Amino acid sequence: MAEELVSLTVGRIIRSSSTRFSVGCRALQPQVPAFGSLVKVPALGGDQIYGLIHDVRMEDDPFVRQVAVTEHLRPEIIVDQRDNRQVPIEVSVLVVGYRHQGEIIQRLPPQPPLSLDELHTCASGELVDFTGRFDYFRLVLDCRDLPADELLAANLRTAAEARGEGPGRDFLVNAGRELARLLAMDLYRLDAILRRIRP
To answer: What is the mean pLDDT of the chain?
Structure first.
């Protein structure tokens, strides 16, 4: 199996809806957040809501605007701004399912997560469990205002890596078959996604 992915805290929810939510975090860490990562947040009743990271936005602030045009910028100023920044980095997440009474359900949850709840990445085992079925593909593919094809491909590559070389290849073959079924009337799109997930 590939190197174990551990669960890490990303940040706290700043706004949410039934289909998407955004999280504010202080600084980027290695692999957090990564485009296409499966993440989870607590839901009412002890459930969990799952989503895929689809965007990371770093807003500027007046100080950054001034510093950016400084001719001889000292490295310690850059480090200080990155480590002590007051404007949060915003991570956007597409909802792809939830866990209710221990069962993973790949459709929209009954209610969105609450503001200030903590968002966490999923460890390898949970990623493998969630991607054991492909019902969530349609939730991703139907989002025309997102880079949906890139998002799904990134998620599938990560899920295959979590399974290891042999099982990961079998997983991608099965995922490709499901994509072929869903996109049978859009062969150009199907081909583009298959090229992105090819091992």
So the answer is: 88
Residue with tokens 């992105």: 196
Q: Is residue 43 part of a domain?
A: yes
Is 3 a domain residue? no
Query: Hey, which residues does 29 pair with through a beta bridge?
Result: 32
Structural domain boundaries, residue 25: 9-197
Q: How many residues does the chain have?
A: 199
CB 116 within 8 A of CB 13: yes
CA distances from 33 to 7, 9, 67, 110 (A): 12, 9, 25, 26
Average pLDDT over residues 16-35: 81
The answer to the question of residue 1 being in a domain is: no
Residue range 71-93, pLDDT digits in tens: 777 777 777 766 666 667 889 99
